[in-house]
């Protein structure tokens, strides 16, 4: 009995001793900073470096994408423009070299004619910038080509670049010694488009003085006189145009209109009958008839 009690007390004391030892060990473990252990510290530092490096790569990539994306349209456009211009320069140089290598004058003339046809097509398609480039390419090979200068002036006029058009035509005047009626006619067109009717009148008169058989010059001048409200002159000049082109619907159209403005019913009927004869499908006939019927 006593022996059993002794063993029980001994077991309890032993258990208590073990618990105390374990508790002390645990308190020491709790105070240990694992961050100070060499292996763990090195591993964690490596992880931090890798993490930071990865973050930098991500940030750099993001910044690059951002740079490309934000003003990307402008940057990409500039890049394409730069390369496109280089290609155009190379193409232009090769074209010039190709023309220079043409042996005979016939070959050169044919090549220039083809280039002019191409430029005219671009002008008709309202591709003014490309037409200008094509014409300037031709002038680099043939700097005194009158037709090309006329086309270039027309490109500028159609694109409402009146200053460039006028400068081109004024150069043409020197080139043609002031003897080309088309140049004066084109200058008059530009003056008219800019609202300078008196200058247009002067230039149209110069074109007529150099070519008295071109009905377009007379009709253009008649239109200027109408704009200046000089109806008698407009009628007289348009009648001269009709003598040169007696069945021209555009001239008849003008003469009917100016006759109505001048309240000349008999004259308006005369020109309307002529229009019905030469162009019975003209859409303006009905309106002209109503306007003439309203005249006293």
Question: How would you state the average pLDDT, rounded?
Answer: 77
List low-confidence stretches: 25-54, 68-73
Which oligomeric form is depicted?
single chain
Number of DSSP strand runs: 0
Q: Separation of termini?
A: 156 Å
Rg over alpha carbons: 46 Å
Shape category: elongated
Can you count the helices? 14
Walkthrough of the structure:
The chain has helices spanning 2-31, 38-69, 72-100, 105-124, 128-141, 146-158, 162-175, 181-193, 197-210, 215-227, 231-244, 249-261, 265-278, 285-293. With 296 residues, it is mostly helical. Helix 5 packs antiparallel against helix 6, helix 6 (146-158) packs antiparallel against helix 7 and helix 11 (231-244) packs antiparallel against helix 12 (249-261). Mean pLDDT is 77; it is low at 25-54 and 68-73.
Sequence-ordered SSE layout with sheet pairings:
Layout: H1 2-31, H2 38-69, H3 72-100, H4 105-124, H5 128-141, H6 146-158, H7 162-175, H8 181-193, H9 197-210, H10 215-227, H11 231-244, H12 249-261, H13 265-278, H14 285-293
Helix pairs in contact: 2-3, 4-5, 4-6, 5-6, 6-7, 6-8, 7-8, 8-9, 9-10, 10-11, 11-12, 12-13, 13-14
